[in-house]
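Model the whole thing, not chain by chain.
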Amino acid sequence: GENVEQHPSTLSVQEGDSAVIKCTYSDSASNYFPWYKQELGKRPQLIIDIRSNVGEKKDQRIAVTLNKTAKHFSLHITETQPEDSAVYFCAASDPYSGGSNYKLTFGKGTLLTVNP
Amino acid sequence: NAGVTQTPKFQVLKTGQSMTLQCAQDMNHNSMYWYRQDPGMGLRLIYYSASEGTTDKGEVPNGYNVSRLNKREFSLRLESAAPSQTSVYFCASRRVLAGGEDEQFFGPGTRLTVL
């Protein structure tokens, strides 16, 4: 099955700096890569996603890039704010679970701390 | 519209006891999922249900059973709880839109401790 590696496990930045979280996946047939944010004690929520036919996607201060050749994708957060502090999870769709049999494999998460 | 709800929020069990975690969604989604979250391990899929009447194993199914009671409800049962099952359990349902938007909506979680 799919294997997703996520780095770093913890990341501390100063407010206003940029933060980058990187993930690699094992199966070149995976085609959908979402990112979820989980605030302390809360449920995970989708913040951005990218499909394999796109190299980059932006939504205000967050962006995701995908390198299919290298099988890695990254989350970029610019002008970080204290409210960006959370655990971020990357995920990849299981390429053998198409249609309604859709599954995600998650990375182990990155704890981002934005210091004021 | 409550989204995805889970009960209970917290539970403490003794080794060997059984219990059922309940999950319901009111968004008319076909697919539902059960994950467990452990420190440093991310979200790991236990079981999922692609549609009413079907269930399949995920990455870590041992020690669990599930029931897709109807389109709204998907329950997770621990027949004989073990300390290794101490975790936070999340239920999720999946929305897919014609424009390609694809999102799993998570419930608030159940924090389970097995002594």
